[in-house]
Amino acid sequence: MGNVTYFKRTNILGYHQRLARISKKIKEDCSGKPYEQVLAQYDIEAFYDLPTAEDLIYLGDIKNISGTPFFSFNLKDYGYEFSILTKDDLKNIIEQYYQHVNKEFTKLKELLAPLCKNEQIDYDQIVSHLYGKFQIWGNNDLKWRPYNLREDRENIVDSNRYEYDVFELVRILKTFNWKKNHLVLSGW
C-alpha cells in the first residue's frame, strides 16, 4: 500500500479520509467517463485502487476542505469522496492540525496552572496526558517508534497523533510533485 502512515481515525462526518498521490494521466484517462465505465476500465472496486494511486497519510478531523472533483460524476452519490487538493488546501489542513495541537497543550497548561497557586488540580487528566506521552516515548518494550527510519519508505512519521502527523503533512507539502501528480483527498 505504498508509503502510508498506518493508522485510521474517523473524522467528524463519520467516515475515513486520507491523502493520496495519483498521476495526472489517470485524471485525463477518466475525464468524462461515467462511474461504471471507470470501474470497468481499471477493473477496480474502489477508486483508491486506481493505478498509480499511492496512500500518503490517513487524516484526523478536518473541516472545510472540499477540493475539485476528480471525476465528472458525483461520487458522493455512491458514498465516496475523491477530490483534487491544492497546495493551499494542504496548508489549510496543516493549520488545522496546528490548531488541534495548540488546543491540547493550552488545555494541559490550564490543568497545570493550579499547581503554581496550590489549588485543586485534576490529576486524572494530567496523568492521562503524560501516560500517552510515555506510551510513545518512554516504553522501551515496544518495537514501534513515532518516527520511521526505513529507507524504502518516504514517510518520516508513524503515528496517529496530531502533534507528529503535522510534520508528515509538511513533508508532503515540501516534496510533492505538483506538476506530475494530483493530491487527492479520498473519503469513504
Give a quick set of tags describing it.
5 helices, disordered N terminus, single chain, five-stranded antiparallel beta sheet, alpha+beta, 188 residues, 40% helix, elongated
Brief synopsis:
The chain has helices spanning 24-30, 35-42, 87-117, 123-137, 162-175, and strands spanning 17-23, 54-58, 68-69, 81-85, 181-187.
| Total tally of structural domains | 1
Note poorly predicted spans.
1-13
- Sheet with most strands: strand arrangement: 2-1-5-4-3
Using only C-alpha atoms, the radius of gyration works out to 20 Å
SSE topology:
Elements: E1 17-23, H1 24-30, H2 35-42, E2 54-58, E3 68-69, E4 81-85, H3 87-117, H4 123-137, H5 162-175, E5 181-187
Antiparallel strand pairs: 1-2, 1-5, 3-4, 4-5
Helix pairs in contact: 3-5
Model description:
- With 188 residues, this protein is of the alpha+beta class.
- It has one domain (1-188).
- The chain is built from 5 helices and 5 strands, in the order E-H-H-E-E-E-H-H-H-E.
- It has helices spanning 24-30, 35-42, 87-117, 123-137, 162-175, and strands at residues 17-23, 54-58, 68-69, 81-85, 181-187.
- A 5-stranded antiparallel sheet has the order 2-1-5-4-3.
- The longest helix has 31 residues, at 87-117.
- The model is unreliable at 1-13 (pLDDT under 50).
